Amino acid sequence: MDEAGACGAREARAERQRAAILDAAMACLVRGGLKSDRMLSAIARQAGISRPTLYRYFDSYEAVRDALTERELTRLVSDLVPLADELTWDVRSFGALIGYIVTFVRNHPLFSAAPADNRGALAPQFASQAFLPLRYALSVLKPRIEQRIADGAIPPIDVEFAADVFGRIVLSFTFTNGLVPLDSADDLARYLERALTLVLGMAVESPGA
């Protein structure tokens, strides 16, 4: 094997090991009951490697957490691309987009199976630091939405402002409960259609203002 081939093989092994560590981190977080000061040891055991080996890839629990969050966010955004490519200016289309995101996060193992203390460890990625995943999603989806505007499927809108608004809506539906139970995807879809109809149907100014 020549030098280039050997280098490629090493990189492939490193990528497989990194993926295995993130899979182990997912399993540990889902099992729950682990604090950050013990998490790296648990992840190393789950991955079948030593802690020094783990440190060659990630130097802290936060680095593992951030890489895992980034990987799962990348998967979500890739799923959203087809929806963005078909987006139209109606409540059903936007409701489907929002509903998919909310359902994805609600059903994700990190949130659906992990206990409250582990959700708290991950919550900053989706709450006070929500602008970080939102910026990443926008970097992928904004050109596609702008193309829909150019095609006439969506009126000229401020895409970044719209993303911020809908991002806040997603966070609200994901992490809070209201008066209306939303226990199924169908319940959520119907609620979103009604909510968007109400909001989009409002006049900017009151009649006679």
Set down the secondary structure blueprint.
Elements: H1 3-31, H2 36-47, H3 51-55, H4 61-85, H5 91-107, H6 109-112, H7 116-122, H8 131-150, H9 159-175, H10 185-200
Structure description:
This protein has 209 residues and is mainly alpha-helical. The chain has two domains: 1-59, Arc Repressor Mutant, subunit A, CATH 1.10.10; 61-209, Tetracycline Repressor, domain 2, CATH 1.10.357. The chain contains ten helices and no strands. It has helices at 3-31, 36-47, 51-55, 61-85, 91-107, 109-112, 116-122, 131-150, 159-175, 185-200. α4 (61-85) runs parallel beside α8 and α8 (131-150) crosses α9 (159-175). The model is unreliable at 203-209 (pLDDT under 50). This is HTH tetR-type domain-containing protein. Residues 39-58 bind DNA. Residues 15-76 form the HTH tetR-type domain. Keywords: DNA-binding. One of its GO terms (molecular function) is DNA-binding transcription factor activity.
Instruction: State the major sheet.
Output: none
Our Rg estimate from Cα atoms comes to 21 Å
Shape estimate: globular
The counted number of beta strands is: 0
**CATH topology term of the largest domain:** Tetracycline Repressor, domain 2
Cα-to-Cα separation, first versus last residue: 78 Å
- Kindly estimate the percentage of residues that lie in beta strands according to DSSP: under 5%
The number of distinct structural domains comes to 2
- Mean pLDDT score: 81
Explain briefly what this protein structure is.
The chain is an all-alpha fold and 209 residues long. 73% of the residues lie in helices and 0% in strands.
